[in-house]
UniProtKB/TrEMBL annotation:
It comes from Pleomassaria siparia CBS 279.74. GO terms for cellular component: cytosol; nucleus. Residues 32-276 form the Glycosyl hydrolase family 92 N-terminal domain. GO terms for biological process: carbohydrate metabolic process; glycoprotein catabolic process. Residues 282-757 form the Glycosyl hydrolase family domain. This is Glycoside hydrolase family 92 protein. Keywords: Hydrolase, Signal.
Amino acid sequence: MASLTRTTITRSWLIALLSVAAHGKTPSPYDYVDPLIGTINGGHVFPGATLPFGMAKAVADVLEENQGGFSSNDSPIYGFSHLHDSGTGGGASLGNFPIFPHAGCPNDDIKACAYPYHTRATPRVNGSINARPGYFDITLESQVRAEMTVTSHAALYRFTFPEVPTTPNTTLSPLIVLDLFDLQNSRSAANLVVDGASGRITGGGTFAPSFGVGNYTAYFCADFKGAELRDAGVWVNDTPSFEKSLTVAQQNNAGAWVRFKAPPSHNQMLVRVGISFISAAQACSNGNREMPSFGFDMALNASVNAWKEKLEVITIDAGGASDVLLKSFWSGIYRSMISPQDYTGENPLWTSTEPYYDSYYCIWDSFRSIHPLLTLLDPTSQTLMVRSLIDIYRHEGKLPDCRMSFCKGFTQGGSNADVVLVDAYLKNLSAGIDWTTGYEALISDAEVEPADWEVEGRGGLDAWKSINYIPKQADADTRSVSRTVEYAYNDFAIALIAKQLGHEDDYKKYLTRSANWKNVFRANQTAAINGMDTGFTGFLQPRWPNGTWASQDPIRCSPLLNFTSCYLNPSGGEAYEGSLFMYTFFVPQDMASLIQTLGGNEAFVKRLDYLHESGILYMGDEQGFLQVFLYHYAGRPGLSAARSRTYIPSQFNDTIGGIPGNDDSGAMGSFEALTMMGIFPNPGQDVYFITPPFFESVSIVSGQTGKTATITNVNFDAAGKNVYIQRAILNGSPYTKNWLQHSFFMEGGVLELTLGPEESAWGTKPEDGPPSLGPS
Ligand SMILES: *[C@@H]1O[C@H](CO)[C@@H](O)[C@H](O)[C@H]1NC(C)=O
Ligand SMILES: *[C@@H]1O[C@H](CO)[C@@H](O)[C@H](O)[C@H]1NC(C)=O
Ligand SMILES: *[C@@H]1O[C@H](CO)[C@@H](O)[C@H](O)[C@H]1NC(C)=O
Ligand SMILES: *[C@@H]1O[C@H](CO)[C@@H](O)[C@H](O)[C@H]1NC(C)=O
Ligand SMILES: *[C@@H]1O[C@H](CO)[C@@H](O)[C@H](O)[C@H]1NC(C)=O
Ligand SMILES: *[C@@H]1O[C@H](CO)[C@@H](O)[C@H](O)[C@H]1NC(C)=O
Ligand SMILES: *[C@@H]1O[C@H](CO)[C@@H](O)[C@H](O)[C@H]1NC(C)=O
Ligand SMILES: *[C@@H]1O[C@H](CO)[C@@H](O)[C@H](O)[C@H]1NC(C)=O
Ligand SMILES: *[C@@H]1O[C@H](CO)[C@@H](O)[C@H](O)[C@H]1NC(C)=O
């Protein structure tokens, strides 16, 4: 998905690094992670406390631009909540049951405290934020400081109150408000009970998913420690009462409140919120089990250790590369591991011994780089995700393309979970994966049209099998051309696994269908920008069911023309979130044929340069990623390397606005990480494009074998002038192919790249390039 606004705002992270330096330690990868990157201008990154792939995600929630809960703007904070998604391009997700601390009520009158979100919202103190993996800390203008950390299924908040509350006539007597609210105000029903003896608040509510259909029910259990309870009750709109339970439907602002005596120690108290999608009782047991003693430092330490463990599979020798690059790199890896979320044991929809992951948000975005990155860095988690996808197929009848909060999300193009499965298969992920059922799921996508293809599977399969393209339909949001090229690629992926599994007939069938992109290629189509011919001929174009060409301006839906008109909206056009000029490059299965179709290597390189330099390509959307590396197929691998340097750090960097589009669960971050390691993949194939790492060397320990693969640059210059590979040596022998296979990472070894300031002959011969089906 794409975000709409972009501007630059910088933030000083130096202070944190300098303080590390002052303590005499070299910064570790963990120290380089800045969770606030991408928290303004549409990045929608969740910057709060979470474990890798954890369900509990705690952060401050703001009133505006709150897709990830928090934003680095001036918007006031209305609460702290425990479930979030990161980087969504759809609506704001989750954010259920926020809590909000008052230091006291004026004149000690509970009626004088603010309850609904819009009256209690309070600005932050500028500069008070301290965010790092597993921890978020912010002070409100009320001088209440809120620190938070998490375990898998519970959030822990430590509130520090001012000795003298800032509101007039108020003495310290904390009142915590709990609200039956979510970020998008979507509640359809909720209830809660507050225990007048302990203060414990339990309850649940039913809410809408942010980019999908249906509803989900979440439960919470809030417990308090560190101060003596005075009284408790519920509230509706502006009015608190001493009732102890509440049932509400839509609209009303409503929740519970609990009031305490002044905390005896450091004016601090703790709030532990266990969460569950099964029941309030399970929410309580989650909290009790994971944080029996409310140990803030213990939970924080455990989450810091969990993150360090995730990062330590990579070792960098920076070779003088800037802190901007180091921070962008490690933060990108960090963001790739926030979601999908491990909801195993919390699935109310079916009983299974398989893992259950949620927040595939969305696979259209994540198949391109997030999942391949996880396969490299955390194959264990990626294996569990693949198993969960197959189990979703088992119980829902289809693989998802997008899924959040136990609901089916909107499909944007093809059935791209196919690519995720095949990528995993080709890279030898196997532990516990039922590939027989996995294959069945792929064939189902390719053959069986679901009742509602807007939320799973593929639509138009009759046409796909008879006229061999997805036709445009009058007055419909068909996305016919982008679906055609994605279905073609999905079928190619299925062909690859069919061959491996010995299904020779399927292999032939899907290989044939993978050529269907040719049926929407119109050889004499031209493209103009503001009436000026671009000089290129031959573009993808829509066709009617009868074969007659329809027409769509090849520039439309690029930043140059009606940029934001191609979402899931009526008259969204025939290419989803992008121009036909750009989609014309999307033939990852057969670049050789595409290059021939577009006039050969030289013409192709010229057109690809034009794509990058004319303003047609938008890097804030994931379809831009592969376009950086397509030079490899035209015998110019050096141009891929040079091109990647034009985007990092100018569009991907360490500022709070440092990603060009919404992060989509870490997609932008995974692009940065893979590009800087010099191994961007062609997802769904056993292909990594070789470009020089942005650091002197990079080593990855394989989670599959325990072996170490190292890519090292000779003649490395940190400024990035020597970006052209002159020669390569793999484990002591000359290596002329411009791509690697996953076996390099599994078997370990050393790839030594010698760099220079000019393009060389290395990797430029036809036989050096990555595989293609080849011109037929
Ligand atoms: C915080 O900084 C912003 C500018 O980034 C400014 O607009 C706002 O007024 C400041 N707030 C306070 C309380 O100083
Ligand atoms: C504070 O208390 C004084 C004296 O009781 C009273 O006159 C005043 O209205 C109170 N102010 C507020 C804001 O409640
Ligand atoms: C949630 O969705 C189910 C299934 O569509 C429906 O029966 C139920 O009424 C919905 N519940 C609420 C509270 O909206
Ligand atoms: C924090 O984790 C480190 C590393 O595992 C351990 O040595 C230390 O004892 C832990 N400290 C606490 C307070 O749990
Ligand atoms: C990966 O799997 C393929 C196909 O099953 C097999 O040929 C290959 O040896 C495996 N590679 C490794 C490194 O295990
Ligand atoms: C392309 O060729 C067809 C005839 O084959 C013609 O009708 C059409 O106008 C041409 N389109 C362009 C854009 O030149
Ligand atoms: C094909 O269908 C389109 C759209 O309905 C129509 O405009 C066109 O005239 C048809 N072409 C032929 C040859 O019938
Ligand atoms: C672009 O948007 C404008 C205004 O919404 C509309 O009038 C125009 O037809 C659109 N152009 C294209 C090529 O879609
Ligand atoms: C950082 O990235 C943002 C988003 O792409 C971009 O607008 C900004 O210009 C970049 N800043 C720097 C200093 O390169």
